[in-house]
Amino acid sequence: MKNGTDSFVSSFHWPFAGSFGFNTDILATNPINLSVVLGVLIFFGKGVLSDLLDNRKLRILTTIRNSEELQEGAIERLEKARARLRKVEMEADQFRVNGYSEIEREKWNLINSTSKTLEQLENYKNETIHFEQQRAINQVRQRVFQQALQGALGTLNSCLNKELHLRTISANIRMFGALKEITD
Fold first, then answer.
1. Of the candidates 107, 140, 153, 165, which lies 20 to 30 Å from 146 by C-alpha distance?
2. Direct distance between the N- and C-terminal alpha carbons of the chain, in angstroms, rounded to an integer
3. What is the pLDDT of residues 86-105, one digit of tens each?
4. Burial class of 29 by CB neighbour count within 10 A (0 to 12, 13 to 18, 19+)
5. What's the gap between Cα 5 and its chain centre?
6. Could you tell me which of 155, 154, 176, 174 has the C-alpha nearest to residue 166?
7. Domain tally for the chain?
8. Does this model's pTM top 0.85?
């Protein structure tokens, strides 16, 4: 075998022209078979492979478009959710501010109401103390008056005799009679 083509030309492996047979030389038949199979596959399979690749390309493009649409929808929903969140946060801040101002207003109302109530209680206390003082003063006056009257009666009874007593009564009757005439 002087060159690589001698093995293919060898008469041992090639049957005569009129007969049909199998070539059992693996090195000689595999490249021919592979080239024939590849040629047939390329010739007949080119359309099928092209269709498969086109279908796969269309599915991938459709999936990408769907994903982009879903992404756009998700972005829109996210923006809407963020807007709602900002709105809710603003409302929460407003409620918080209103709540604090309402609490302050109620606190001052309670303080004012309590101070008015304390002032009224202080006034009632002072009025009660004044009333009790006046009552005590009146009781002391009555006792002093009663004691003075008893002392005066005791002094009068001890100093007056019957004649002086009758003259005093007569003078008082005349005085009342004179007053009666003046008023009539």
1. 165
2. 185
3. 999 999 888 888 888 888 88
4. middle
5. 92
6. 174
7. 1
8. no
